[in-house]
């Protein structure tokens, strides 16, 4: 894919109708970790919900307000508190009076280079949703909606997906993306939690996924199976590489991601670290200073 051409052709600022109850507005914040940008979803008609308001950018705020002109924004749902997902909730709440609902607040610093957006310190929810909690909005016949929280830690510990009952659709935030596997960055990103959350989704019967980055996923179960297999493959690579002796993470990354742009190796290193922490918890590897080795 020609990313530069895709960015030039992207419908930034437009309101795209992607299903009978769902519209999307794309923020102009493309990057190696956001793909073409943050896709903010507008659910329903008349009385609407906004999912992942996005970065605090004037143009994106104007686009959301234009897309919802003449309607009432009643709820702002947030999947997690990275700065490409939640900051615009502050200004949208002030302008609309909507309730901010969804994930718990979370601001941490990590012990390595950031490989995606940092955490949003401005996020202040009116209501934190637990797994399985349901929020209704409007009457079904009038474009109403019913949204259920699905707790999916892994990318971050506070990550939620949101199920739209009326369309058997799942808004997957960064847990499942429409263009790449997600980054799992310790200390908050956790590979064991991520895998458990993938298995949770595998057991659901959602018809379609709407990720915050990338296109809709029309074969969600197939994609989730592929993601699980991919992570198991990476785990196997690590163990095989450690068969020949202790190694540092950059050495593992160079071997495992030889075909990947070296500029993305720091991000790959964070996911390798997440795998190693998980393997250590399962008594399969040991940390030895800057080196990692197979457990005896």
TrEMBL record:
Molecular function GO terms recorded: hydrolase activity
InterPro entries with a match to the protein in the record: LACTB2_WH, Metallo-B-lactamas, RibonucZ/Hydroxyglut_hydro, Sec-metab_biosynth-thioest, WH-like_DNA-bd_sf
PANTHER family in the record: ENDORIBONUCLEASE LACTB2
Metallo-beta-lactamase domain: residues covered: 36-213
UniProt-recorded name of the protein: Glyoxylase-like metal-dependent hydrolase (Beta-lactamase superfamily II)
Origin species: Sphingosinicella soli
CDD domains noted in UniProt: metallo-hydrolase-like_MBL-fold (cd16278)
Keyword annotations of the record: Hydrolase
Pfam families found in the cross-reference section: Lactamase_B (PF00753), WHD_BLACT (PF17778)
């Amino acid at each position: 894919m020609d990313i530069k051409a895709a960015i030039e052709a992207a419908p930034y600022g437009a309101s795209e109708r992607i299903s009978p109850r769902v519209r999307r507005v794309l923020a102009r914040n493309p990057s190696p970790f956001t793909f073409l940008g943050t896709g903010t979803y507008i659910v329903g008609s008349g009385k609407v919900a906004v999912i992942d308001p996005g970065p605090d950018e004037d143009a994106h705020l104007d686009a959301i307000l234009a897309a919802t002109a003449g309607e009432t924004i009643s709820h702002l749902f947030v999947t997690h508190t990275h700065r490409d997902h939640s900051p615009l909730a502050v200004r949208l709440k002030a302008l609309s009076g909507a309730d901010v609902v969804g994930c718990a607040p979370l601001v941490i610093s990590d012990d390595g280079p950031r490989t995606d957006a940092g955490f949003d310190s401005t996020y202040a929810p009116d209501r934190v949703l637990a797994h399985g909690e349901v929020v209704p909005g409007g009457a079904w016949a009038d474009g109403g909606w019913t949204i259920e929280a699905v707790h999916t830690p892994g990318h971050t510990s506070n990550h939620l997906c949101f199920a739209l009952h009326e369309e058997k659709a799942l808004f997957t935030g960064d847990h499942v993306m429409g263009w790449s596997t997600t980054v799992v960055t310790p200390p908050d990103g956790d590979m064991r939690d991520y895998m458990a959350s993938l298995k949770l989704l595998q057991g659901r019967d959602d018809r379609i996924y709407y990720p915050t980055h990338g296109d809709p996923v029309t074969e969600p179960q197939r994609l989730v199976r592929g993601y699980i297999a991919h992570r198991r493959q990476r785990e196997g690579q690590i163990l095989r590489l450690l068969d020949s002796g202790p190694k540092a993470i950059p050495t593992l990354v160079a071997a495992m991601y030889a075909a990947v742009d070296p500029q993305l190796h720091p991000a790959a290193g964070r996911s390798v670290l997440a795998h190693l922490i998980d393997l250590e918890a399962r008594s399969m590897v040991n940390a030895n200073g800057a080196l990692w080795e197979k457990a005896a």
